[in-house]
Design goal:
It comes from Roseibium aquae. This is DUF2157 domain-containing protein. Keywords: Membrane, Transmembrane, Transmembrane helix. Helix 8 runs antiparallel to helix 9 and helix 11 runs antiparallel to helix 12. The chain has 16 helices and no strands. It is 73% helix and 0% strand. It is mainly alpha-helical.
């Protein structure tokens, strides 16, 4: 019996086109290439694949990504400090935004490096934002720290600047197709809505900031779920887009809800601590159902403070309370993490046969 021939190599250009079209994620393309060339003995069993984490996010495909990323950070910081003697703050920001775009053409569009693409996408929005707003106010960017800066600067100029930033963010995403760009577009879109509301009804957002942040968080969460439900098995880039939206929505929701709780019970009270723990359990149930851990990560610090307050009520020393808090919090996190799939199956059991279940990842 003749030995089987090794498979023909996959064409990198076709793999890259599949990633850009959303058919494969970058990580899946890498794994497909390894699978295509690897021997059958290297393959994982179906049981191993069944329990693979569907919420994996791949930042790095090799140390080459890290090496290039270090160079990008050093270069951009060097440009920022080097231009301080020649340009105003908004001019420096504009140059940095332009440099980011040029670098993205090389490392995102052509080389398709994971970590450099992420860093360049994350850096573009604040750089371009600072350039546009610095140009509008035409003075030191410390004006952005003033609570009433919207009214002190001409709204007729501020609003077009926001539209310009939003358009540039959309164009940047359209050009480079990096999933985190969806979160950037959502962020600037919500900021644009907030600016329009504040200009029409001055003081409304400032006086109800917690409610608006909660609303923005819920809108972002709904958008994340829309992407998740388009890809329940999390095989395409829609899953990566949803991940970043979940990560953005989580702190907005958690911080806003707990701020409202603090307004009712007072921060640092027994009732507040108990409410935080109950809320964390509710968030844990939601996170388990949708198979996303971002909500839990955002609530960890609040949960730690709540546990610490309850332990300190037992009249123990500060050192003992601190150590006990870390032990309890860490143990709780490990318990949920290790039993994640079991807890999901338990929570989703009442939904068996419901259409909604087909829009969520399969409980494993």
């Amino acid at each position: 019996m003749s030995a089987s021939k090794p498979p023909a190599p996959l064409e990198p250009d076709r793999l890259a086109a599949a990633v850009e079209a959303g058919i494969l994620s970058e990580h899946q393309a890498d794994r497909l290439a390894e699978f295509w060339q690897g021997p059958a003995s290297d393959l994982r069993s179906s049981a191993d694949l069944t329990f693979a984490d569907r919420e994996e996010v791949r930042f790095v495909r090799g140390f080459h990504d890290i090496f290039i990323s270090i160079g990008l950070v050093v270069l951009l910081f060097g440009m920022t400090f080097g231009l301080q003697s020649f340009l105003p703050a908004w001019g420096i920001a504009a140059v940095i935004a332009g440099a980011i775009w040029i670098l993205a053409e090389v490392f995102s569009k052509r080389m398709r490096l994971a970590l450099p693409s992420f860093l360049l996408n994350v850096a573009f929005l604040p750089a371009f934002f600072a350039a546009c707003f610095g140009l509008v106010v035409d003075q030191d960017l410390s004006v952005l720290d003033q609570g009433d800066w919207v009214h002190e600067n001409e709204a007729v100029l501020v609003l077009p600047a926001i539209f310009l930033v939003a358009a540039a963010t959309v164009l940047f995403y359209w050009r480079f197709k990096v999933p985190v760009g969806i979160a950037a577009i959502t962020a600037i879109g919500l900021f644009l809505v907030a600016m329009i509301v504040e200009m029409i009804l001055p003081g409304l957002i400032e006086n109800n900031s917690t409610i608006f942040l909660l609303g923005f968080g819920l809108v972002t969460f709904a958008l994340a779920m829309a992407y998740d439900m388009r890809d329940p098995q999390r095989l395409t880039l829609n899953s990566d887009k949803a991940f970043w939206l979940h990560l953005m929505a989580a702190p907005l929701i958690v911080h806003s809800v707990l701020s409202l709780v603090a307004d009712v019970y007072g921060d640092g009270s027994l009732a507040y601590s108990v409410t935080v723990i109950v809320l964390f359990l509710v968030l844990a149930a939601i996170a388990l159902i949708v198979d996303r851990r971002a909500l839990l990560v955002s609530a960890m610090s609040y949960l730690g403070f709540a546990i610490g307050y309850l332990i300190s009520e037992a009249n123990v020393s500060e050192e003992a309370a601190f150590a006990a808090t870390l032990v309890v919090l860490g143990g709780f996190i490990l318990l949920i993490g290790s039993a994640w799939h079991v807890l999901r199956r338990f929570l989703l059991r009442p939904l068996a046969g419901q259409a909604l279940l087909h829009r969520l990842p399969d409980p494993r």
